[in-house]
Amino acid sequence: MDKLIITAAICGAEVTKEHNPAVPYTVEEIVREAKSAYDAGASIIHLHVRMDDGTPTQDKKRFKECMDAIKAVIPDVIIQPSTGGAVGMTDDERLQPTELMPEMATLDCGTCNFGGDDVFTNTENTIKYFGQRMIERGIKPELECFDKSMIEMALRLHKKGFILKPMHFDFVMGVNGGIGGDLRDFVFMRGSIPADATYTVAGVGRFEFPLAAAAIIDGGHVRVGFEDNVFLSKGVLAKSNGELVAKVVRLAKELGREIATPAEAREILGLKPL
Fold first, then answer.
1. 3-state DSSP assignment of residue 191
2. 10 Å Cβ neighbour count for 147?
3. Greatest pairwise CA separation for the chain in angstroms
Protein backbone atom coordinates (compact mmCIF):
# COMPACT_ATOMS: atom_id res chain seq x y z
CA MET A 1 0.00 0.00 0.00
CA ASP A 2 1.33 3.43 -0.92
CA LYS A 3 2.07 5.96 1.76
CA LEU A 4 -0.73 8.44 2.46
CA ILE A 5 -0.72 11.71 0.53
CA ILE A 6 -2.40 14.50 2.50
CA THR A 7 -3.66 17.53 0.61
CA ALA A 8 -4.56 20.71 2.50
CA ALA A 9 -7.22 22.90 0.90
CA ILE A 10 -6.32 25.92 2.96
CA CYS A 11 -8.93 28.55 2.05
CA GLY A 12 -11.27 27.81 -0.88
CA ALA A 13 -13.30 30.49 -2.59
CA GLU A 14 -16.44 30.63 -0.46
CA VAL A 15 -15.52 30.13 3.20
CA THR A 16 -14.89 33.36 5.13
CA LYS A 17 -13.49 34.67 8.39
CA GLU A 18 -17.09 34.80 9.60
CA HIS A 19 -17.04 31.00 9.43
CA ASN A 20 -13.63 30.80 11.12
CA PRO A 21 -11.34 33.77 11.90
CA ALA A 22 -8.28 31.74 10.87
CA VAL A 23 -9.39 31.48 7.21
CA PRO A 24 -6.56 33.13 5.23
CA TYR A 25 -7.04 36.02 2.79
CA THR A 26 -3.74 37.91 2.58
CA VAL A 27 -0.51 36.52 1.13
CA GLU A 28 0.99 36.39 4.61
CA GLU A 29 -2.01 34.51 5.98
CA ILE A 30 -1.97 32.04 3.09
CA VAL A 31 1.73 31.32 3.71
CA ARG A 32 1.01 30.87 7.43
CA GLU A 33 -1.72 28.32 6.74
CA ALA A 34 0.25 26.50 4.05
CA LYS A 35 3.20 26.13 6.40
CA SER A 36 1.02 24.95 9.28
CA ALA A 37 -0.43 22.24 7.03
CA TYR A 38 2.98 21.25 5.65
CA ASP A 39 4.56 21.09 9.09
CA ALA A 40 1.74 18.80 10.25
CA GLY A 41 2.23 16.39 7.32
CA ALA A 42 0.59 17.73 4.14
CA SER A 43 2.58 17.29 0.95
CA ILE A 44 0.13 19.10 -1.36
CA ILE A 45 -1.35 22.57 -0.92
CA HIS A 46 -4.60 22.94 -2.86
CA LEU A 47 -4.64 26.65 -3.53
CA HIS A 48 -7.34 29.22 -4.09
CA VAL A 49 -6.33 32.83 -3.63
CA ARG A 50 -8.15 35.90 -2.35
CA MET A 51 -7.73 39.60 -2.42
CA ASP A 52 -6.93 41.10 0.97
CA ASP A 53 -10.64 41.72 1.64
CA GLY A 54 -11.44 38.05 1.02
CA THR A 55 -12.79 38.41 -2.53
CA PRO A 56 -11.96 35.26 -4.51
CA THR A 57 -9.84 35.80 -7.61
CA GLN A 58 -8.13 33.77 -10.33
CA ASP A 59 -5.77 36.62 -11.16
CA LYS A 60 -2.47 35.17 -12.35
CA LYS A 61 -0.42 37.85 -10.61
CA ARG A 62 -2.08 37.12 -7.27
CA PHE A 63 -1.52 33.39 -7.72
CA LYS A 64 2.14 33.97 -8.56
CA GLU A 65 2.60 36.20 -5.53
CA CYS A 66 1.10 33.54 -3.24
CA MET A 67 2.87 30.60 -4.87
CA ASP A 68 6.27 32.32 -4.77
CA ALA A 69 5.74 33.24 -1.13
CA ILE A 70 4.80 29.66 -0.21
CA LYS A 71 7.78 28.21 -2.07
CA ALA A 72 10.13 30.64 -0.34
CA VAL A 73 9.17 29.06 2.99
CA ILE A 74 8.46 25.43 1.99
CA PRO A 75 10.27 24.90 -1.33
CA ASP A 76 9.55 21.17 -1.76
CA VAL A 77 5.77 21.30 -1.27
CA ILE A 78 3.48 20.51 -4.23
CA ILE A 79 1.23 23.47 -5.01
CA GLN A 80 -2.01 22.53 -6.75
CA PRO A 81 -3.88 25.66 -7.88
CA SER A 82 -7.61 25.46 -8.38
CA THR A 83 -9.10 26.13 -11.80
CA GLY A 84 -12.56 26.03 -10.24
CA GLY A 85 -12.40 29.67 -9.23
CA ALA A 86 -15.79 30.92 -8.12
CA VAL A 87 -19.29 30.71 -9.55
CA GLY A 88 -19.69 33.03 -12.57
CA MET A 89 -16.06 33.17 -13.72
CA THR A 90 -15.22 32.54 -17.40
CA ASP A 91 -13.15 29.57 -18.57
CA ASP A 92 -10.10 31.67 -19.44
CA GLU A 93 -10.35 33.54 -16.16
CA ARG A 94 -10.37 30.25 -14.28
CA LEU A 95 -7.40 28.89 -16.27
CA GLN A 96 -5.04 31.77 -15.44
CA PRO A 97 -3.00 29.93 -12.79
CA THR A 98 -2.12 27.18 -15.29
CA GLU A 99 -0.09 29.80 -17.17
CA LEU A 100 2.34 29.60 -14.23
CA MET A 101 3.08 25.97 -15.16
CA PRO A 102 2.35 24.29 -11.81
CA GLU A 103 2.96 20.56 -11.37
CA MET A 104 -0.74 19.92 -10.79
CA ALA A 105 -4.05 21.76 -11.08
CA THR A 106 -7.67 20.80 -10.57
CA LEU A 107 -9.98 19.94 -13.43
CA ASP A 108 -13.69 19.89 -12.55
CA CYS A 109 -15.51 17.17 -14.45
CA GLY A 110 -19.13 18.32 -14.46
CA THR A 111 -21.76 20.87 -13.53
CA CYS A 112 -23.18 21.00 -10.00
CA ASN A 113 -25.88 22.96 -8.18
CA PHE A 114 -24.31 24.80 -5.26
CA GLY A 115 -27.49 25.91 -3.50
CA GLY A 116 -30.03 28.64 -4.19
CA ASP A 117 -29.47 29.98 -7.69
CA ASP A 118 -25.73 29.15 -7.77
CA VAL A 119 -24.67 26.71 -10.48
CA PHE A 120 -21.04 25.66 -10.85
CA THR A 121 -20.92 25.24 -14.62
CA ASN A 122 -18.51 22.88 -16.37
CA THR A 123 -19.80 21.95 -19.81
CA GLU A 124 -18.27 19.11 -21.79
CA ASN A 125 -16.50 21.65 -23.99
CA THR A 126 -15.14 23.42 -20.91
CA ILE A 127 -13.72 20.16 -19.60
CA LYS A 128 -12.14 19.38 -22.98
CA TYR A 129 -10.65 22.88 -23.15
CA PHE A 130 -9.17 22.62 -19.64
CA GLY A 131 -7.87 19.10 -20.30
CA GLN A 132 -6.17 20.13 -23.54
CA ARG A 133 -4.54 23.16 -21.93
CA MET A 134 -3.15 21.00 -19.12
CA ILE A 135 -1.73 18.50 -21.58
CA GLU A 136 -0.08 21.33 -23.54
CA ARG A 137 1.40 22.78 -20.35
CA GLY A 138 2.55 19.49 -18.83
CA ILE A 139 0.24 19.82 -15.82
CA LYS A 140 -1.21 16.75 -14.11
CA PRO A 141 -4.94 17.27 -13.54
CA GLU A 142 -6.63 16.29 -10.33
CA LEU A 143 -10.06 15.25 -11.59
CA GLU A 144 -12.61 16.83 -9.27
CA CYS A 145 -15.74 14.66 -9.19
CA PHE A 146 -18.77 15.69 -7.17
CA ASP A 147 -20.84 12.74 -8.40
CA LYS A 148 -20.56 9.40 -10.25
CA SER A 149 -21.54 11.00 -13.57
CA MET A 150 -18.41 13.15 -13.42
CA ILE A 151 -16.23 10.05 -13.19
CA GLU A 152 -17.96 8.76 -16.31
CA MET A 153 -17.26 12.07 -18.07
CA ALA A 154 -13.57 11.88 -17.15
CA LEU A 155 -13.29 8.30 -18.42
CA ARG A 156 -15.04 9.18 -21.68
CA LEU A 157 -12.81 12.21 -22.29
CA HIS A 158 -9.75 10.12 -21.51
CA LYS A 159 -10.73 7.84 -24.39
CA LYS A 160 -10.99 10.92 -26.63
CA GLY A 161 -7.51 12.10 -25.64
CA PHE A 162 -8.36 15.09 -23.45
CA ILE A 163 -7.21 13.47 -20.18
CA LEU A 164 -4.08 11.33 -19.93
CA LYS A 165 -3.34 8.28 -17.79
CA PRO A 166 -2.52 7.57 -15.06
CA MET A 167 -5.56 9.48 -13.79
CA HIS A 168 -5.84 10.99 -10.34
CA PHE A 169 -9.33 11.65 -8.99
CA ASP A 170 -10.60 13.75 -6.12
CA PHE A 171 -13.97 12.60 -4.79
CA VAL A 172 -15.59 15.75 -3.37
CA MET A 173 -18.35 14.34 -1.21
CA GLY A 174 -21.13 15.82 0.89
CA VAL A 175 -21.56 19.03 -1.14
CA ASN A 176 -25.09 20.37 -1.55
CA GLY A 177 -26.05 19.25 -5.08
CA GLY A 178 -23.48 16.46 -5.29
CA ILE A 179 -23.17 12.92 -4.00
CA GLY A 180 -23.58 12.32 -0.26
CA GLY A 181 -20.81 11.52 2.15
CA ASP A 182 -21.89 8.18 3.57
CA LEU A 183 -19.74 5.06 3.37
CA ARG A 184 -21.99 3.56 0.68
CA ASP A 185 -21.36 6.67 -1.46
CA PHE A 186 -17.62 6.33 -1.00
CA VAL A 187 -17.72 2.65 -2.00
CA PHE A 188 -19.75 3.58 -5.12
CA MET A 189 -17.26 6.26 -6.20
CA ARG A 190 -14.21 4.17 -5.31
CA GLY A 191 -15.47 1.23 -7.35
CA SER A 192 -16.02 3.41 -10.43
CA ILE A 193 -12.43 4.37 -11.25
CA PRO A 194 -9.80 2.36 -13.18
CA ALA A 195 -7.52 -0.02 -11.31
CA ASP A 196 -4.45 2.02 -12.28
CA ALA A 197 -5.91 5.33 -11.05
CA THR A 198 -5.18 7.02 -7.74
CA TYR A 199 -7.67 9.03 -5.73
CA THR A 200 -8.09 11.51 -2.92
CA VAL A 201 -11.25 11.97 -0.85
CA ALA A 202 -12.44 15.42 0.22
CA GLY A 203 -15.32 15.04 2.67
CA VAL A 204 -17.22 18.27 3.27
CA GLY A 205 -18.28 19.33 6.75
CA ARG A 206 -19.09 16.46 9.11
CA PHE A 207 -18.05 13.93 6.45
CA GLU A 208 -14.41 15.05 6.42
CA PHE A 209 -12.91 12.71 8.99
CA PRO A 210 -15.13 9.61 8.52
CA LEU A 211 -14.27 9.65 4.80
CA ALA A 212 -10.61 10.29 5.61
CA ALA A 213 -10.62 7.11 7.70
CA ALA A 214 -12.24 5.14 4.87
CA ALA A 215 -9.63 6.34 2.37
CA ILE A 216 -6.77 5.58 4.75
CA ILE A 217 -7.99 2.00 5.21
CA ASP A 218 -8.63 1.51 1.49
CA GLY A 219 -5.23 2.79 0.33
CA GLY A 220 -6.44 6.10 -1.07
CA HIS A 221 -5.43 9.61 -0.15
CA VAL A 222 -7.01 12.41 1.85
CA ARG A 223 -7.83 16.10 1.51
CA VAL A 224 -8.72 18.26 4.49
CA GLY A 225 -8.70 21.99 5.12
CA PHE A 226 -10.76 25.10 5.68
CA GLU A 227 -12.20 24.96 2.15
CA ASP A 228 -14.11 21.84 3.13
CA ASN A 229 -14.56 22.08 6.88
CA VAL A 230 -13.65 24.63 9.56
CA PHE A 231 -14.24 22.39 12.60
CA LEU A 232 -11.77 20.12 14.37
CA SER A 233 -14.67 18.32 16.04
CA LYS A 234 -18.35 19.07 16.56
CA GLY A 235 -18.67 22.69 17.67
CA VAL A 236 -14.90 23.18 18.00
CA LEU A 237 -13.33 25.49 15.41
CA ALA A 238 -9.92 24.44 14.13
CA LYS A 239 -7.23 26.99 14.96
CA SER A 240 -5.34 26.27 11.74
CA ASN A 241 -5.26 24.00 8.72
CA GLY A 242 -2.38 22.30 10.47
CA GLU A 243 -4.74 21.08 13.20
CA LEU A 244 -6.93 19.40 10.60
CA VAL A 245 -3.92 17.76 8.93
CA ALA A 246 -2.57 16.61 12.31
CA LYS A 247 -5.86 14.86 13.04
CA VAL A 248 -5.53 12.89 9.80
CA VAL A 249 -1.94 12.00 10.70
CA ARG A 250 -3.16 10.64 14.04
CA LEU A 251 -5.86 8.59 12.29
CA ALA A 252 -3.29 7.23 9.85
CA LYS A 253 -0.94 6.27 12.67
CA GLU A 254 -3.70 4.38 14.47
CA LEU A 255 -4.60 2.59 11.23
CA GLY A 256 -1.00 1.71 10.34
CA ARG A 257 -0.49 4.01 7.35
CA GLU A 258 2.68 6.04 6.85
CA ILE A 259 2.58 9.63 5.60
CA ALA A 260 4.10 10.53 2.23
CA THR A 261 6.66 13.31 1.92
CA PRO A 262 6.36 15.65 -1.08
CA ALA A 263 9.06 13.61 -2.88
CA GLU A 264 7.16 10.38 -2.22
CA ALA A 265 3.90 12.01 -3.30
CA ARG A 266 5.52 13.02 -6.59
CA GLU A 267 6.59 9.43 -7.18
CA ILE A 268 3.13 8.02 -6.35
CA LEU A 269 1.40 10.53 -8.64
CA GLY A 270 3.90 10.26 -11.49
CA LEU A 271 5.16 13.83 -11.20
CA LYS A 272 8.70 14.81 -12.04
CA PRO A 273 11.05 14.94 -9.07
CA LEU A 274 12.36 18.36 -8.05
1. coil
2. 23
3. 46
